[in-house]
Specification:
The chain is an alpha/beta fold and 203 residues long. It has a domain at 6-85: Rossmann fold (3-Layer(aba) Sandwich), CATH 3.40.50. It has helices at residues 15-26, 42-52, 64-75, and strands at 6-11, 31-37, 55-59, 80-82, 85-86, 97-98, 103-104, 109-110, 115-116, 121-122, 127-128, 133-134, 139-140, 145-146, 151-152, 157-158, 163-164, 169-170, 175-176, 181-182, 191-193, 198-199. The strands form four sheets. It has an eight-stranded mixed sheet with strand order 5-7-10-13-16-19-21-22, covered by helices on one side. It has a five-stranded parallel sheet with strand order 6-9-12-15-18, with no helix packed on it. Strands 8-11-14-17-20 form a five-stranded parallel sheet, with no helix packed on it. The longest helix is centred in the N-terminal third of the chain and has 12 residues, at 15-26. It is globular. It binds coenzyme A. Coenzyme A (COA) binds next to strand 21. Keywords: Transferase. InterPro entries: AcTrfase_PglD-like (IPR020019), Hexapep (IPR001451), Hexapep_transf_CS (IPR018357), Trans_hexapeptide_repeat (IPR050179), Trimer_LpxA-like_sf (IPR011004). Pfam families: Hexapep.
Length: 203
């Protein structure tokens, strides 16, 4: 059977947006890249949404707070279809509860019993252990390892190569620095770095 490819717009026009564009190119012919929507063209895009009805979108922005703002703006304007973009080499258990607007890039390996919210970005070669809960609007950078039963409350940035040990909770909006090993719960809104991860000192 022949499927007509669905046009997908990428919200964002920076480097990460181009990486999402590359994933679309690498996908089987289900999706077709339709264009980038940068901050300056958002209004015109929303007008097009109201004229043309359902359009498929995915967010290509690497800062959790900005992902949330753009998501909120576009989700309330209805008629938009936030796809889950899953690279063919990414794997995860089919028992996962998966929201909308998530990106799984090449080499992501997520296992079983997962609950994943909306608008999360799983960058290259991230692993996610059993029964982890990922909230909304998280950015999980390349090579991060999230162990079993970890909870990310939402809007979290996990820096490249960091690890979160089993059963820990990363509070809403908290940031884990690149290369950190998190061995204790992290409070909402805080920034931790190092091995073992400690609160980043600010002057
Ligand atoms: C933790 C982080 C968010 C802090 O950013 P910031 O607030 O701009 O911090 P600064 O760069 O001003 O650094 C402040 C201090 O923390 C140190 N620091 C920064 N990041 C660190 C890290 N990941 N581990 C250990 N120390 C770190 C800096 O060396 C500096 O120390 P100094 O004051 O003794 O010189 C950021 O450095 C980080 O790790 N981001 C993740 C980036 C990432 O994953 N990139 C990959 C994209 S694909």
């Amino acid at each position: 059977m022949y499927h007509i490819p669905q046009n997908v717009f990428i919200l964002g026009d920076g480097g990460l947006a181009r990486e999402v564009g590359l994933i679309l190119e690498q996908m089987p012919k289900k999706w077709q890249f339709a264009g980038y929507v940068g901050p300056k063209s958002e209004d015109a895009f929303l007008e097009m949404v109201s004229n043309e009805g359902i359009l498929s979108v995915i967010i290509g922005i690497g800062i959790p707070r900005i992902r949330r703002i753009v998501y909120d703006r576009f989700i309330v304007n209805g008629g938009l279809n936030f796809i889950n973009l899953i690279h063919p080499s990414a794997t995860f258990g089919y028992d996962a509860h998966l929201g909308i607007g998530n990106v799984f890039t090449a080499g992501v390996q997520a296992t079983t019993g997962l609950r994943i919210g909306d608008n999360n970005y799983f960058n290259l070669n991230v692993t996610v252990g059993h029964d982890a809960q990922i909230g909304d609007h998280c950015v999980i950078n390349p090579g991060v390892h999230i162990s079993g039963h970890v909870i990310l409350e939402g809007e979290n940035l996990l820096g490249a190569g960091s690890q979160v040990l089993a059963g820990l909770t990363i509070g809403r909006g908290a940031i884990v620095g690149a290369g950190a090993v998190v061995t204790k719960n992290v409070d909402a809104g805080s920034v931790v770095v190092g091995i073992p991860a400690k609160l980043m000192e600010r002057e």
